């Protein structure tokens, strides 16, 4: 057999052996890998019957504790219902986690697929030509994301904090509606820290699950006796609004320079570009959220009110 014939067989073999997955009796074909993190992978999958595409998040669980974390994530997908928060399509577990016999399980979470990708993807494309968004579009996107955050923070019986708000965790629909995703970092908003052990545990968890360049100062160095609340998300929203204006979090820029993000966050230093197309009111809204002391940081209702006031001001000028 010549090399060309062998090559064709290899290629055909790759097509024929494309992975299939079954989630509660529904069969899907894995099309391509969309993303990969420390704890999970995300694949593009296609329903064999309807040919509709979805995203499949797989979380490998090495212990019962890992499995509980995955179950908590699925629980948040099921109970959080808002137009700007991603919906759960289906979920299941494969295998059983048991640390004693060194077995693993895997959580399968089927989610909608957004062809446009994430807000960070969109901002990165625009950044190549420094193609700034119009201020109205910036505030529209930010306002809708803030409504999703308000829903979390007002959730009953217990408020929820996302804890990893960032441009990379916001998907965009075909009509440019922002949809908050990745609920794996969600947790009860209020955490009572009682002692050094509690503080270290929360600090380690934040380092594991909260992206450094969007992480609130109080999660870098957790005090031994304190209360952490939903205002960690407000800091992240401030970084996100900066990214809507300038394509990245202010602390992404620090990280890229090789400087200490930790020190920059703790100092609260924020540098706006000199050739900015955005006026002082937008910068004031960003700084309103980026207060190092969480007790001086606003709650989400104040952020929404200030955003609405700015939108009305811009509309009246036009």
TrEMBL record:
GO terms for molecular function: ATP binding; protein serine/threonine kinase activity. InterPro entries: Kinase-like_dom_sf, Prot_kinase_dom, Ser/Thr-specific_kinases, Ser/Thr_kinase_AS. The keyword Kinase applies. Keywords: ATP-binding, Kinase, Nucleotide-binding, Serine/threonine-protein kinase, Transferase. It holds the Pfam family Pkinase. SUPFAM superfamilies: Protein kinase-like (PK-like) (SSF56112). Residues 28-310 form the Protein kinase domain. The keyword Magnesium does not apply. One of its GO terms (cellular component) is Golgi apparatus. Its EC number is 2.7.11.1. It catalyses: L-threonyl-[protein] + ATP = O-phospho-L-threonyl-[protein] + ADP + H(+); L-seryl-[protein] + ATP = O-phospho-L-seryl-[protein] + ADP + H(+). It is an enzyme of class 2 (transferase). This is non-specific serine/threonine protein kinase. The gene is AUGUSTUS-3.0.2_15191.
């Amino acid at each position: 057999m010549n090399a060309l014939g062998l090559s064709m067989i290899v290629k055909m073999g790759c097509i024929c052996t494309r992975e299939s997955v079954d989630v509660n009796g529904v069969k899907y074909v894995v099309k391509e890998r969309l993303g990969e993190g420390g704890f999970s992978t995300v694949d593009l999958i296609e329903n064999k019957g309807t040919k509709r595409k979805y995203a499949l998040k797989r979380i490998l669980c090495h212990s019962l504790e890992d499995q509980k974390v995955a179950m908590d994530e699925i629980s948040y997908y099921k109970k959080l219902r808002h137009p700007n928060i991603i919906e759960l399509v289906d979920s299941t577990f494969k295998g059983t986690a048991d640390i004693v016999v060194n077995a693993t399980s895997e959580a399968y979470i089927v989610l909608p697929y957004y062809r446009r990708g994430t807000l960070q993807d969109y901002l990165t494309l625009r950044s190549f030509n420094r193609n700034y968004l119009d201020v109205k579009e910036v505030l529209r996107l930010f306002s809708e994301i803030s409504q999703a955050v308000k829903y979390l923070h007002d959730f009953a019986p217990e408020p929820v904090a996302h804890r990893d708000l960032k441009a990379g965790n916001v998907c965009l629909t075909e009509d440019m509606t922002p949809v908050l995703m990745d609920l794996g970092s969600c947790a009860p908003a209020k955490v009572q820290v009682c002692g050094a052990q509690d503080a270290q545990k929360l600090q380690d968890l934040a380092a594991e699950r909260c992206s450094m360049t969007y992480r609130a100062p109080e999660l870098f160095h957790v005090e031994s006796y304190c209360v952490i609340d939903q205002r960690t998300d407000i800091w992240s929203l401030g970084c996100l609004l900066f990214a809507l204006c300038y394509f990245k979090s202010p602390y992404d820029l620090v990280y890229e320079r090789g400087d200490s993000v930790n020190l920059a966050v703790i100092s609260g230093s924020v540098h706006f570009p000199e050739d900015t197309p955005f006026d002082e009111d937008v910068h004031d809204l960003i700084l309103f959220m980026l207060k190092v002391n969480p007790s001086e940081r606003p709650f989400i209702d104040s952020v929404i009110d200030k955003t609405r006031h700015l939108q009305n001001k811009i509309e009246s000028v036009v």
